[in-house]
């Protein structure tokens, strides 16, 4: 991978009659601000596009891959704040922990009364060390800003969702298990197989599906759905005792063990 750097200019061409788009530059100082332990970075490449960060490995090599840096705007759909898009540069290590974030562009009506509120001390810094499996819920997992809930929620969702997509693309070191109802000639899924997977890997496998429901002022719920007529998946999500009890109750309803799991987070 090329190790050249370090000014990348992203040009957005707007059609005639539409407002001109912002030219966003990512330079070495910005990359090192969010990934300070890196010695060098690759050019932006891949799908989704990332800058690969290199640092000192356990063997002392400075060419060891230590994480990724990416723009939330490179992983659409982008999240909208109260007045517009919020673009953030994010860095993540190889186990799914956020190293740093930097708001690179936003233009909100609230800036006239709140100032540069998304760059206040502590807002960007609070993400350092958080794992991307966290929900990043305002006032629960991360601090919010009074009077700017819509904007902060949009920023936090953008960081979370883009990080998870990068993790699914670059951090997976195992093939996902065969989905329930898939190729019967493939090896059967065991509970031990699923327990070795992260929640993000389970989501990517198709065994469960998720959606986000955003309510007023960007407060919302994460919904998770799964068919748990399959014993292995039911044991994973509910635990063997609870799943057995639910199956027994369901049989009294005459549904032949067809069960759906609905998880709520928010």
From TrEMBL:
Annotated ranges, domain FMN-binding: 81-166
Molecular function via GO: FMN binding
SMART domains xrefs: FMN_bind
GO cellular component: membrane
InterPro entries per UniProt: FMN-bd (IPR007329)
Name listed for the protein in its UniProt record: FMN-binding domain-containing protein
Organism of derivation: marine metagenome
Lineage of source species: unclassified sequences, metagenomes, ecological metagenomes
